[in-house]
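Example 9 (inverse folding). The structure is encoded as follows.
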């Protein structure tokens, strides 16, 4: 991975191609600047105009922004809306009814297409089915599903009846699922027998069984099971129901439940620097507005596009840019069940070719691993595929290093597709800082400029603005419609985590560091400034992994740090002290394996430490504080040049160099 020095020196500039600019929704920098100026002139008026023009309201709003209870901001609060209505019904009367909404491709490359009319019908069946089970407005429903039309329909069905969904990524363990079910107080879980990825069947239903058997999930009445592969599963009579039975004989129409704009559309759990994952709560109206606007602005979506976002619906990207945004603008999108490396690492390019994708949105980790694969095997190199349908590329989830950016630009975009490097977070609901493809000149490794209406800035520790050219703390100064509303069940933590008093209590703290270019004002994100790791674009708290490790009866103490990794951006390195003597040789390898499996069970396979190092102790100051900065140096395999005079036990450092 390139470090910040490389980003600072980056001076290649790629202007949007002329024909892209000509047809773009936001065409040229003056158009971008005009929108920014409109927002600056009349902030509320700007958002109100866009919310009237881009959404269908059952009852129009008269209030725009309510700041009286800041930082618990409210947007369009007296308006009534339904998100599913805006994604589906709207497309039945505007000429899109017979347009393909979703092109679903299964792991083994079977393709299913559904039109907007058909998707509407399926979502209505689903919504009526949920209602028949007594699920109602305000209830929470956990969705633990594979990538599928049914997964998207489940989310839309909840939105249709005003139930708040909480999607849990299918890679999380039973324990993580149980914690989320309990915290959300969910009444039902929607799952599948298995998920199929890379030619393998991975369990889902049995993990739900385990999670619910762990106790505390008394609010759950039903488990609804989508039959994906007909795998052998256990069945709890009275609780478990097949999805096809729930859908059978349901009416084709389901009147949407009109909700207040502030009604919680979903809760999505994400890692923070302390404690358990937090349930990020999003509203309905403001969230959907931003999903629509960013589809139009950042993705320049047009009626004939074939749009493909490779994210999973278990993450925020799969919420905003699969389940909601593309449908709300009537787009045709690809939904993919499998993995980029099956049956080989040419799968993405093969799919772009077969489906004639025009917009492709993926994560830097995927790009980096596919670069490696393409370099190792000519047969799956992107040059073997016809990628000429592509007109726009996107990147999300982690910093993209300039080398990966250039490879993407040349080998996938053939130097004619702009790249939108979109910076945003679970909490922001949608893109915050990103080039506009028909306006902003792009610089590899920079997410460039804030979208219109987004008041991103860089400040110092006291909350004061820093001049361009200085690295600092990334903040957003004014509330925006798609922002997080609160942390479910924990408003105090919401205030502390995002609107701390030290910064005046009113500006949003992203948790990332950033720097602005001295001349252009372009932003480059330098990474998290809290104890959150970003491994392959997946957010993980070091504390979470440490707690999982020390929950193992043989572990006395553990400290986890991130280590730069060429492919995954960061990798997890755990320093562990056992309650017994420090293991060496084969024993150390064996225990390291056991601990990895343990973490997979506690959190999920994505949280498995890549490296584990055993010591008799951890490097600590005389007051007993773990010196994490030394651990980061050790993890990188670098020599310690820092002052270690405050270190209680310097002899320990040598032990911690050896990894398992
Ligand atoms: C990081 C994912 C650099 C950042 C949408 C942020 C990025 C965290 C970018 C949020 C980008 C996301 N450039 N870093 N374009 N996009 N990040 O909540 O550290 O899963 O705080 O949302 O990912 O991760 P989350």
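The amino acid assigned to each position is listed next.
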């Amino acid at each position: 991975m390139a470090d910040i020095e490389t980003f600072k020196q980056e001076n290649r500039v790629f202007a949007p191609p002329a024909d892209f600019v000509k047809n773009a929704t936001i065409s040229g920098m003056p158009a971008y600047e005009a929108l920014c100026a409109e927002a600056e002139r009349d902030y509320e008026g700007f958002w109100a105009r866009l919310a009237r023009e881009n959404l269908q309201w059952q009852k129009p709003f008269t209030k725009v922004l309510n700041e009286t209870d800041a930082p618990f901001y409210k947007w369009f609060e007296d308006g009534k809306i339904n998100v599913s209505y805006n994604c589906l019904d709207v497309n039945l009367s505007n000429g899109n009814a017979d347009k393909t909404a979703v092109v679903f491709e299964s792991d083994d490359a079977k393709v299913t297409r559904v039109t907007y009319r058909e998707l509407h019908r399926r979502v209505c069946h689903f919504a009526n089915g949920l209602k028949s089970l007594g699920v109602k407005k305000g209830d929470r429903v956990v969705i633990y599903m594979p990538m599928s039309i049914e997964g998207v329909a489940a989310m839309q069905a909840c939105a249709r009846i005003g139930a708040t969904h909480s999607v849990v990524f299918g890679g999380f363990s039973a324990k993580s699922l149980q914690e989320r079910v309990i915290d959300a107080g969910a009444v039902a879980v929607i799952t599948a027998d298995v998920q199929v990825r890379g030619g393998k069947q991975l369990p889902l239903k049995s993990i739900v069984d385990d999670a619910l058997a762990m106790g505390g999930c008394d609010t759950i009445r039903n488990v609804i099971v989508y039959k994906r592969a007909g795998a052998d599963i256990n069945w709890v009579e009275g609780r478990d129901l097949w999805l096809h039975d729930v859908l059978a004989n349901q009416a084709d129409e389901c009147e949407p439940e009109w909700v207040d704009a502030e009604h919680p559309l979903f809760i999505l759990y994400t890692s923070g620097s302390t404690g358990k994952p937090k349930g990020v709560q999003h509203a309905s109206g403001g969230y959907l507005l931003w999903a629509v606007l960013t589809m139009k602005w950042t993705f320049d979506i047009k009626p004939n596009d074939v749009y493909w976002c490779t994210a999973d619906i278990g993450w925020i990207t799969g919420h905003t840019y699969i389940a909601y945004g593309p449908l709300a603008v009537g787009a045709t999108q690809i939904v993919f069940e499998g993995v980029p490396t099956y049956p080989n690492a040419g799968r993405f390019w093969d799919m772009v070719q077969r489906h004639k994708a025009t917009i492709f949105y993926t994560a830097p980790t995927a790009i980096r691993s596919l670069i490696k694969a393409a370099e190792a095997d000519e047969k799956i190199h992107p040059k073997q595929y016809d990628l000429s349908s592509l007109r726009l590329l996107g990147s999300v989830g982690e910093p993209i290093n300039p080398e990966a950016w250039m490879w993407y630009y040349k080998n996938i975009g053939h130097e004619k597709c702009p790249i939108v490097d979109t910076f945003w977070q679970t909490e922001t609901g949608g893109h915050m800082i990103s080039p506009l493809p028909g306006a902003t000149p792009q610089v590899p490794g920079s997410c460039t400029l804030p979208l219109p209406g987004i008041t991103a800035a860089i400040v110092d520790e006291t909350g004061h603005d820093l001049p361009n050219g200085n690295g600092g703390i990334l903040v957003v100064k004014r509330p925006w419609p798609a922002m997080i509303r609160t942390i479910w069940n924990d408003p105090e933590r919401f205030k502390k985590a995002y609107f701390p008093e030290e910064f005046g209590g009113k500006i949003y703290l992203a948790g990332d560091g950033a720097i602005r270019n001295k001349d252009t004002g372009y932003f480059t994100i330098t990474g998290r400034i809290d104890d959150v790791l970003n491994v392959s674009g997946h957010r993980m708290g070091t504390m979470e992994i440490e707690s999982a490790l020390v929950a193992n009866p043989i572990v006395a103490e553990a400290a986890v740090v991130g280590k730069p990794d060429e492919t995954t951006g960061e990798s997890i390195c755990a320093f562990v002290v056992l309650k017994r003597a420090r293991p060496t040789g084969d024993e150390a390898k064996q225990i390291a394996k056991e601990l990895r499996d343990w973490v997979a069970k506690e959190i999920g396979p994505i949280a498995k430490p890549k490296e584990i190092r055993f010591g008799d102790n951890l490097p600590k100051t005389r007051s007993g504080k773990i010196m994490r900065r030394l651990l980061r140096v050790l993890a990188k395999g670098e020599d310690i040049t820092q002052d270690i005079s405050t270190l209680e036990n310097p002899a320990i450092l040598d032990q911690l160099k050896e990894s398992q």
